[in-house]
Amino acid sequence: MYRFIETLRIEHRQLIRPEWHERRLNDTRYHFFDKVQDIDLSRAIQIPQTLTEATYKCRVVYSSDIEAVTFEPYHARDIRSLQVVYDDKIDYAFKYYDRSAFNDYLNHSSSDDILIVKQGCVTDTSFSNIVFYDGKDWITPSYYLLNGIQRQYLLQQGIIIERKIKLGDLSSFYCAKLINAMLPFESSRAIDVALIYS
User: Fold this and answer.
1) Which CA distances in Å does 81 have to 54, 61, 84, 114, 190?
2) Most buried residue among 55, 88, 159, 183 by CB atoms closer than 10 A?
3) Which architecture, in CATH terms, is 4-73?
4) Which of 17, 24, 18, 178 is nearest to 93 (CA)?
């Protein structure tokens, strides 16, 4: 059976952009399962009274229906270096529960995370989309593995732009940031492009 995850950020006891996650969750369910109806994610997620005003990660595991909802305090990973890996066949168009394809690479990497190059194009890291700064604009690869919620939001707001990025293009950038629903653009740590190893 196919299983998927949605990871939502909670700040001040409020879900951040739940409608974006709800759309992806329901689109995924309609793609893989028959006879499903929309899930109202904001109603399905009941924020516990024990949560403080701090930042939390809400993890929703689902298949045709929601299987589990968990909450945990969020602490951003300290990512300072990336190891380039090449995989022309990797497929993560949907946010699958099974992340073994990424884990195999991570287990053999000496860097903090990996940067995946597919068919010659820079895509994503193991857990996030990526944006690069060229001195003027923040640019995200137009070839991606997962069209993440934060990526979509930043593109819609005009904060970032997308462009095809080859591995050889990295030398034209100064730094990079990792972005996902838990890593807002403004608070994501900048990574020196020199610390992306091929």
Assistant:
1) 27, 30, 10, 8, 10
2) 183
3) 2-Layer Sandwich (3.30)
4) 24
Residue pLDDT, tens place only, 80-136: 999 999 999 999 999 999 999 899 999 999 999 999 999 999 999 999 999 999 999
Q: Do residues 29 and 37 lie in contact, with contact meaning Cβ atoms separated by under 8 Å?
A: no
Q: Token digits for 61?
A: 């595991």
CATH topology of domain 82-197: D-amino Acid Aminotransferase; Chain A, domain 2 (3.20.10)
Separation between Cα atoms, residue 158 and residue 138, nearest integer Å: 10
Same fold, 4-73 and 82-197: no
CA 165 to chain centre: 18
Residues of the chain with pLDDT under 50: none
